[in-house]
Automatic annotation (TrEMBL):
TM region positions: 1351-1374
Organism: Pygocentrus nattereri (Red-bellied piranha)
Protein name per the record: Crumbs cell polarity complex component 2b
Lineage start: Eukaryota, Metazoa, Chordata, Craniata, Vertebrata
Disulfide cysteine pairs (residue numbers): 76-85, 114-123, 152-161, 190-199, 228-237, 305-314, 359-368, 397-406, 483-492, 712-721, 936-945, 1176-1185, 1192-1202, 1213-1222, 1251-1260, 1291-1300, 1329-1338
Domain spans labelled Laminin G: 495-682, 725-908, 974-1148
Family of this protein: Belongs to the Crumbs protein family.
Compartment(s) where it occurs, according to its Swiss-Prot or TrEMBL record: Apical cell membrane; Cell projection; Secreted
Keywords: Cell membrane, Cell projection, Disulfide bond, EGF-like domain, Glycoprotein, Membrane, Repeat, Secreted, Signal, Transmembrane, Transmembrane helix
Pfam families, per the entry: EGF, hEGF, Laminin_G_2
Domain (EGF-like): residue spans on this chain: 49-86, 88-124, 126-162, 164-200, 202-238, 240-277, 279-315, 317-369, 371-407, 409-451, 453-493, 684-722, 910-946, 1150-1186, 1188-1223, 1225-1261, 1265-1301, 1303-1339
Entry membrane topology: Single-pass type I membrane protein
């Protein structure tokens, strides 16, 4: 089997041999002595031998003459025979044998070997096995292929129906019935009491329901019994027992017989009870109302009423409030009304007579006749005088105060006394101006009213960027210098900045003499403040104190750590900042230690990362203070002597800059400090910001203040990261390659393997570890292998394997790392770390062998996917390099030297992938890394330009979308049909049988023929029947057509995708199915049919849309497209050709149903293909939106009347309901009508108050029992008074509540405008206005008033002038009227008085004295 044979060509120069590598020698194949031949041909010559074939006796170009010892014979080609191959014969090439017979070729023709069941020269005759009539007992014989089937008549079985079936064999008769066997039947003779075909039914004597009056019938064998209900008897329970027979009713009662009981009718006997045995008590029905007492009488009763009630049954409640006894608007409540009292109280009708008055505010007394004196509480403040009013008072304020209770100090700022933008602050009978801060280029103002320009900063002496602040000292102008960081003194002329370029320190002595006189309460904390900048993470800033008592601030891992400790007291406090401060920026820090109350340390930081407010951390304990000033007089700045260095965690002196050093609030200047490493100022070179980049852009630059270092990114190394570890190419041009290394040191079981990989080969060994004694040998068993499988990294150890899910063989360089931690495997890629699973823990030992990129033994490497092909770079085991060129690099102290290497090339080199000229059809090959790309001509595509692209030449000249095929193209389009069919033929090009037909269609025609294909009696028909798909097909081996239908209606005017196909096309026969829009719609099951082979015949035809109106899209028969257009003839072999002269209307075009617009009232017409639909606006409906929708028809208003509107409705709700549909029960409890924290129960258009204990009344407004002033204490100067419903507190203004306990917050309503702040005062509020606003509510804009001043200057004089003219005109009119009346004489009432002229004049002018006299 594992061999091959080459069949050498016979045309042209001929060859022979296993690989056809030798020229053909005809003498090798003939038995001829002295044979000579012409190499490369079949010509040879035998001496003294006649060549009968030399004359070419065999006829035909493909016939071959064969020499034989006694002559020759002709080897004829297929289809020819005879001695000279000149006769045309039928042979096996013509497939003459039928019914799957085997054709055997003979010299003069053929011979057919028939399948069982067939005979004849061509096996054309099916042998009829039924001729011998094998079937017995009247059975029908059905002939088959080499067999027959007998269809037995009922009652017989067996292959030939020779066995008579015994129907009694299964014992069908039940209940001991006797079975009698017959022909195809049996009869059961039943015992008494049973019936049915199999005696399975017991005769039910109760079936006729003989028992009466609800009795229960019990079925027995041949009889029944009745169980009667109570009150009946008899065989069938037909007799009703008479319970009145014993005369049970007493005292003349009448007895009425019932079922199993009786009833006594007592009538007017005066008795009651079941048998009229009890005398009737008239008071038992409790006829008396309102707690009255019922007194029994003869055939009657009498009610004794409580005071306040009257009537026969005391049903009338006398109205005590009818005469309106409550004065001054008081509300009257009857005591007898239960709704006015709490249900938990014990209500007594003995005290229910009378009324209670609820007075209006300001009144009290039983009838609300007493006016309350609100001035009793002396509400007026600041010396104001109180005058009593009804339910109120008025305060007459002393000078300087105002408002209701004279509590408001008059706002002196209202007159805006502050000038030049100053903000006025109101004081008591005074004000204070806050002048505007200085702004560059604008004058600065001061003085009481900000009216004095401050000149103190003119020619000021502030230096070094200090800010000058002018001020007024009496009448003298002065200034203050605010220094920038790093400077000090009155003019900011002294620098405070110093630096350490190497570790060092200087010592300060802190004096304590001044603190000896201070008390412990006034003792200031121990504090050191400074500003610093550095880039180093672990440095000491200062050390204060001694070995036994110290206070430290240092940098630890870039964070600030403060530490205070007293070894004598055994107390230690530590605190660390959360952020890093070694970023080279300036940071300000203060550390404080409390010396009073308790032990506490506070760390405050300002600078980058801490925002405006800065960062603060503190730590305290309940321990008493343990450090004092006299213990910490020595301060070491920047470092510490060697004997104290062990107390620090950083263990290194400070390198960097400091400034603004303060110790216990005292500024320390560096100029007088003594320290050899101390330098004044701060000089810093920004190493990491220089160009070119100090780390060559291949690493992170770390600033070390006086120098820098580079943390290189792999695979770079060197001081400036400019050097790169070499890449090594493995498997170049498919060669076997590897490199091996001896481990010179052992590693732990927690180790890692990392490298850069570039590969396109998905399988191969990357790295393998083998034991020292077996390394490299065939017996070697690797204990760890890292390899590629399917483009993913896989790790194998101890027979266990895990694999990553990341594909890494994409041809790009990628950094990968595999970590093993006690058997757990982790995989790192592009910054992500994945857990892969667990393998057997392994440990690399000294002397073990490491193989990289492959193995020396080809047999060993196949297990791991073969040799690796690609590039590896910077391969590391932990931090040790496995580099082929390790002996040449400068970091070989961290590298293993290779022990062997084979076919490993320096650099990352690609194969010459274009050497084999892979690009076809004129494509140009370009090498990419271990791959190639082909630049193809315009009409070819694919990886190697192997695929012809036809559509680029735009062959669909008559319309349609061009779609490329593997061997040609199609012009796909839609078309509109109106009973205009198209006919097609495949011309025999369909090689495979047709197993499916697909088409896209759009129509509204219910019945039509979509597609019909035929050849003789064989056919395929697909159409629409009542809107659903109907399919019929008839194949060559089918006796009857297979017809089946779908269920989904697809004549809705939408596009649908239809598929009619074999369910299992790989089988000879299977059900055919209908699929519509991807959903199964019908099936021919259980009927089956085979593929349609007749469409491969040249005589077959296909007709499309024979009786169809609608649109068709892509139609395919057997996957081959039926074109609608005449375009360039496509090159593919498989295609249909349309009958000449037939054309289709391209595009899907329907009737323009939306023109003209059929939709009314603004409706939108939607074209649904031969149908339209109107999308009506709200409020309209109907086919064309012609009908106004009655939105009230469905009754949307649940509790109200509906009123229809266009596009909506409106509900008029019943009382108690609301909402758009009156579905919402309005919450009458929403306004909290119930008082005293009572529970409000909402009802429909009403509510009920459930009072808490101690309250009653409709609103739970009364105390019960009424509270008295003896046990009620009014707060905040409230006055208590006793009322009928209980004691109440009359509150002073500004307070409220039952006991006047709550101060009213007048600021709740936010009365202050324009950003003013509201201050709640007692009984009033005060607005503190923002700058530029004034008034009680800050409603006045001072700036706007100031802007309007120029207009007022013009308007006021103008208004005064107009007023003066009006006065002069009025005086003139008065004088004229007076003169006129004096001249007319006496006044006589006339029509003027009737017409109202007198009244008009009276309304305009003062009546002159002459008229008043009349």
């Amino acid at each position: 089997m594992d061999d091959y044979a080459c069949v050498c060509a016979r045309d042209g120069v001929r060859y022979m041999g296993k690989d056809c590598e030798e020229l053909y020698d005809a003498c090798v194949f003939v038995d001829c002595e002295g044979c000579t031949s012409e190499l490369g041909t079949d010509q040879f010559h035998c001496p003294a031998e006649v060549d009968e074939c030399a004359s070419g006796p065999c006829v035909g170009v493909r016939s071959e003459c064969i020499k034989e010892p006694d002559g020759f014979s002709c080897l004829c080609p297929d289809g020819f025979g005879g001695e000279d191959c000149d006769e045309r014969i039928t042979d096996c090439m013509d497939e003459p044998c039928l019914n799957n017979a085997t054709c055997r070729r003979q010299l003069d023709g053929f011979r057919c070997e028939c399948m069982p069941g067939f005979r004849g020269d061509r096996c054309e005759e099916d042998i009829d096995e039924c001729v011998s009539q094998p079937c017995q007992n009247g059975a029908i014989c059905k002939d088959g292929t080499n067999k027959y089937h007998c269809f037995c008549v009922p009652g017989y079985q067996g292959y030939n129906c020779e066995i008579d079936i015994n129907e009694c064999a299964s014992r069908p008769c039940e209940n001991n019935g006797t079975c009698i066997n017959g022909k195809d039947r049996y009869i059961c003779e039943c015992l008494l009491g049973y019936t049915g075909t199999n005696c399975e039914v017991e005769v039910d004597e109760c079936e006729s329901d003989p028992c009466e009056n609800g009795a229960t019938c019990n079925d027995l064998m041949g009889l029944y019994t009745c169980d009667c209900v109570k009150g009946f008897s008899g065989l069938n329970c037909e007799i009703n027992i008479d319970e009145c027979e014993s005369a049970p009713c007493q005292n003349g009662g009448t007895c009425h017989d019932l079922v199993d009981s009786f009833e006594c009718e007592c009538g007017d006997s005066g008795f009651m009870g079941d048998v009229c045995e009890e005398d009737i008590p008239e008071c038992a029905s409790d006829p008396c109302h309102h707690g009255a007492t019922c007194v029994e009488g003869m055939n009657g009763y009498t009610c004794t009423c409580w005071p306040g009630f009257e009537g026969l049954n005391c049903e009338v409640d006398v109205d005590d409030c009818a005469d309106s006894p409550c004065k001054n608007g008081g509300e009257c409540f009857e005591k007898s009304d239960p709704t006015n009292w709490d249900t938990e109280w014990t209500f007594s009708y003995a005290t229910a007579a009378g009324y209670v008055c609820q007075c209006q505010p300001g009144y009290t007394g039983e009838n609300c006749s007493i006016n309350i004196n609100e001035c009793v509480s002396e509400p007026c403040q600041n010396g104001g005088t109180c005058e009593d009013l009804v339910n109120g008072y008025v305060c007459l304020c002393a000078d300087g105060f105002t408002d209701v209770e004279c509590e408001v100090d008059i706002d002196e700022c209202e007159s805006t006394p502050c000038l030049n933008g100053g903000v006025c602050e109101d004081l008591v009978a005074d004000y204070l101006c806050h002048c505007r801060e200085s702004t560059e280029g604008l004058p600065v103002w001061g003085g009481r009213k900000c009216a004095v320009e401050l000149l103190g900063c003119l020619d000021h002496q502030c230096q070094n960027g200090a800010t000058c602040m002018p001020r007024l000292d009496g009448e003298e102008h002065r200034h203050t210098c605010l220094c920038a960081p790093g400077f000090y003194d009155d003019y900011c002329s002294t620098p405070t900045t110093f630096s350490f370029s190497q570790p060092g320190y200087f010592l300060l002595e802190v004096p304590v003499d001044e603190r000896k006189k201070r008390s412990a309460e006034k003792e200031s904390p121990l504090q050191v403040c400074l500003r610093f900048r550095t880039t180093l993470p672990n440095r000491l800033l200062f050390f204060r104190g001694s070995t036994d008592h110290f206070f430290i601030l240092e940098l630890v891992e870039g964070a600030l750590r403060a530490w205070a400790e007293s070894r004598e007291d055994g107390v230690s406090l530590q605190i660390t900042s959360s952020g890093l401060v070694n970023d080279g920026s300036w940071h300000e820090v203060c550390v404080s230690i409390a010396v009073v109350e308790r032990a506490e340390i506070v760390l405050e930081i300002k600078g980058p990362g801490c925002g405006k407010e800065g960062c603060r951390a503190e730590y305290n304990t309940d321990h008493a203070p343990f450090l004092q000033h006299h213990q910490l007089t020595q301060v070491y700045v920047g470092g510490v002597p060697e004997e104290h260095l062990s107390l620090t965690k950083s263990r290194q002196g400070f390198v960097g800059c400091m400034e603004d050093l303060l110790v216990d609030g005292r500024t320390i200047l560096p100029q007088g400090a003594d320290g050899p490493e101390l330098e004044l100022g701060c000089s810093k070179r920004e190493w990491c910001q220089e160009e070119p980049h100090p780390c060559s852009y291949h690493g992170d630059c770390i600033d070390l203040w006086t120098t820098y270092k580079c943390s290189c990114h792999r695979p770079y190394y060197g001081q400036d990261c400019s050097q790169e570890f070499s890449s090594w190419t493995f498997g170049h041009e498919s060669s076997a390659s590897f490199s091996s290394f001896d481990l010179l040191a052992g590693h732990s079981e927690n180790f890692s393997v990392s490298f850069f990989l570039r590969s396109l080969k998905p399988d191969g060994v990357l790295l393998q570890l083998q034991k020292a004694e077996l390394g490299g040998s065939e017996e070697a068993e690797p204990y760890l292998t890292v390899y590629l499988q399917m483009g993913r990294v896989q790790v194998s150890a101890g027979g266990q394997s895990v694999r990553s899910s990341v594909f890494v063989c994409d041809g790009h360089k990628q950094e990968l790392q595999v970590e093993l931690q006690q058997g757990d495997v982790f995989f790192s890629h592009t910054g992500f770390r994945y857990y892969l699973g667990s393998v057997t823990p392994v440990t690399p030992w000294e002397g073990d062998m490491v193989y990289v990129g492959g193995l020396p033994d080809e047999g060993m490497v196949s297990e791991w996917g073969g040799q690796f092909k690609g590039c590896l770079q910077d391969v590391r085991l932990d931090n040790m390099h496995l580099d082929v060129g390790a002996w040449n690099n400068t970091v070989n102290d961290t590298a293993y030297i290779p022990s062997d290497a084979e076919n490993v090339l320096h650099g990352c080199i690609s194969d010459d992938t274009c050497k084999a000229e892979p690009c076809m059809n004129g494509g140009e090959c370009s090498i990419t890394w271990n791959d190639f790309t082909c630049s193809c001509p315009l009409n070819f595509t694919g990886k190697t330009c192997e695929t012809r692209v036809w559509c680029v030449s735009d062959p669909c000249v008559n319309g349609g979308l061009c779609v490329d095929l593997l061997d040609g193209f199609e012009c796909v389009s839609n078309a509109t049909f109106d009973n205009s069919p198209l006919h097609y033929t495949a011309k025999g090009s369909l090689v495979a049988p047709v197993t499916n037909v697909t088409m896209d269609l759009r129509t509204r025609q219910e019945n039509s023929v979509l597609l019909r294909a035929w050849r003789g009696a064989e056919f395929l028909l697909i159409g629409l029947l009542d809107g659903t798909v109907r399919a019929e097909l008839h194949g060559e081996n089918s006796q009857e057509p297979v017809a089946f239908s779908g269920t989904q209606r697809i004549t809705d005017g939408r596009w649908h995708h239809l598929v009619v196909a074999m369910e299992h096309p790989e089988q000879e026969a299977s059900p055919w199915v209908i699929t519509v829009d991807g959903i199964s719609d019908g099936s021919s099951a259980p009927e089956q049919a085979g593929a349609l082979r007749f469409l491969s015949d040249v005589t077959s035809e296909v007709a499309l849309a024979e009786s169809y109106a609608g649109c068709l899209g892509v139609v395919r028969v057997g996957g081959v497209y039926l074109p609608f257009t005449d375009d360039v003839t496509p090159p593919q072999v498989l295609r249909f050709r349309r009958r000449r002269g037939e054309r289709a209307r391209l595009g899907c075009v329907g009737v323009p149903v939306c023109h003209p617009q059929p939709c009314q009232h603004g409706g939108t017409c939607e074209d649904l293909f031969h149908l339209f639909r109107c999308a009506c606006p709200p409020g309209w409906e109907g086919l064309t939106c012609e009908t106004n929708t009655d939105e009230c028809a469905p009754g949307p208003c649940l509790h109200g009347n509906c009123r229809d509107k266009v596009g909506g409705f409106e509900c008029e709700c019943e009382p108690g309901y609301g909402g758009p549909t009156c579905a919402q029960d309005l919450d009458e409890c929403k306004d909290s009508p119930c008082l005293n924290r009572a529970t409000c129960m909402d009802g429909v258009n009403q509510y009920t108050c459930i009072c808490r204990r101690g309250y009653s009344g409709k609103h739970c407004q009364w105390n019960h029992p009424p509270q008295t002033c003896e046990n009620l204490e009014c707060e905040n100067s409230g006055v208590c008074r006793d009322a009928l419903w209980g004691a109440e507190c009359i509150c002073t203004p500004g307070f409220t509540g039952h006991r006047c306990e709550t101060e009213i917050d007048e600021c709740l309503s936010s009365p202050c405008l324009n950003g003013g702040t509201c201050l709640d005062r007692l009984s009033f509020f005060q607005c503190v206005c923002a700058a530029g606003f004034s008034g009680p509510y800050c409603e006045t804009n001072k700036e706007a008033q100031r802007d309007r001043m120029p207009w007022l200057v013009v308007a006021i004089p103008l208004a005064c002038g107009c007023a003066l003219l009006a006065v002069i005109g009025l005086i003139f009119m008065l004088m004229t009227a007076r003169r006129k009346r004096q001249s007319e004489g006496a006044y006589s009432p006339s029509q003027q008085e009737v017409a109202g002229a007198r009244l008009e004049m009276d309304s305009m002018l003062k009546v002159p004295p002459e008229e008043r006299l009349i």
